[in-house]
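#random but structural
TW: two for the price of one
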Amino acid sequence: MNHPLHDCRPRQLLAPRAGRALVAAALAGSALLAHLPAQAAEPRSPEAIQLLQRMHKAARSLDYAGVYTYQQGNTVLSTQIVHVVDGTGERERVSMLDGQPREYIRHNEITQCLLPDHKVVLKERRDSERFPAVLFDEGLELATHYVLNLHDAAERVAGRKCQVLELEPRDTHRYGYRFCADKETGLPLRAQTVGPEGVLIQIVFNTLQVGSKVAPEALAPAWNTKGWEVVEVPVQEVDLASEGWRIPLPPGYRPLKQVLRPMKAGRQVKQMVVSDGLASMSVFIEAYKESGDQPREAGLMRKGAVSLYRKRIGDHWLTVLGEVPAETVRDLADRTEYVPLAVP
């Protein structure tokens, strides 16, 4: 049986964030494209970094529950989240309210993806990549690659006052970002990815409860999984450089992990995840096959903020995917080389 591993990837463009859902184009609605007056913001990097760190800490340490909406182009997806921290660590339930029923039950780094249509539970060890978490590291190098602007005027999201933080890219290797952090708790209430044409992606809480009002009972899955097949998804660490891969990263990006993971139809794929602290990309490497159930084409594809570039290198497919400008993924792929190790 081929287990639907791809059904448990976050909804982004062609795969399972990179939150993150494979998804898609510039947002409709002039309200989303509006910028606050320039005089309301001023560069204050140390304060801005502290606010980013507070936002990230709040997402990982507070009890909260609510519904948020993901918007990209014509795609609008709603998600329910319950997050509780107890004596055992972080516990979380994330339920997709649109499309195929699907639910993620997470306890620290162990995530179970529930697929009721297949009566399958896919169990995998992986870091949380989901909103409202925003950082991949401490964010200490972000000021090198972004201009950080704090707005003094408060906004209101989900009935709560929040402070706006903008990050403008200093180069063409990344998009900009705009966050609105809850004044009381620091929790991100809205996150936007911004390109030259305006807002490309928006994730925003519609309803939110924080603190003692969040009931731990809400962490229980929507379905009784007794009798479902439980599939452990093996993930093995690899070292692509030692295998002969030369992958030159854009300025500010660094590797976060390198793993070998199974994909659909029994394929084995090597994945390198890289990030500058906010933006991220994945480099996928797999064996090239002349035939197969999923013929693919080389070249560039873009949907909204998500860019994908695929090319053949020797006997391998190389695919670079990320919420970054198209030239960033193309340049990374075109500069990548494979130098097979000498056989003794």
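TW: number two ↓
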Amino acid sequence: MVEEEVSSLEEGTVTVIATGPLTSDAMAEFIKNDLGCGNLHFFDAAAPIVDASTINMDVAFFASRYDKGDADYINCTMNKEQYDAFWQALTTAEEAELKEFDKESQKNVKVFEGCMPVEVMAKRGYETLCYGPLKPVGLVDPRVGKESYAVVQLRKENREGTMFNLVGFQTHLTFPEQRRVFRMIPGLENAEFLRYGVMHRNTYLNSPGILDNTYAMNARPDVFFAGQMTGVEGYVESAGSGLLAGINAANRALGKDKLALPAETMLGAMADYVSRGGTGAFAPMNANFGIVTPLGYRVKGGKAAKNEKLAERALSIIDQTLATL
């Protein structure tokens, strides 16, 4: 083991790059320019994502603004009384404490104007949100035949439509506060959050098109990435990406075929997300059942029973894969 800073690597050497969110400037420049990965993302601003099956569609409805294009957005309407309660809760909710490097990042990144936290926007004025992400113009509630006081829109996060994100809801709120306040939105009272909103320093690749589903570079198959740099979010997820990248780096060195796990497994689903992305701009993702290929049939017994079936299917696939190695 050699403990020293690495800022480059030799051509043709099988390598796993597992540098984290605070990558050194020299290594970041090497990844960006020499490896041809382009600009790295230095600030992670992502809105919460909810499980589509937990949205109350007796209250919410699909529609596009002015009925233009496909009705891909789920709309959660508010009357003035509901909006008032939501605004009061949002503007008084507890915010997450920033780390020192996050504070420094915000000095250098125009995050507050380009990607303003929803609670900061709300504090600028009572009706500010109604002219921003909660703008009701052009969205007619089919139940009453008119526009509402405010509308929260949710956009499809993946092609399968199992995950929806709250449009314009980047936030600094703590996770418990996000759950409490955002469940005040009509239709989201029982919403399960697959990912909470985050805003922090997080160096990562724009991985779709750069990495394949084995964490190898498409342009440099001898170079693999692992950990948060790939766009997975969390410790277990980073370890999981490292496991798959390590196996495939070893296979590459030994002249064996790469191992790509199917998206019916969690490791495969994360690798698939990293290599293909969702439906919008690429943002880090944690392990959750929303990114796993759906069963394709209904399961009695609710969410727990469905997740158990997903797990059973995944374990069966892994057993079959191991048997072929």
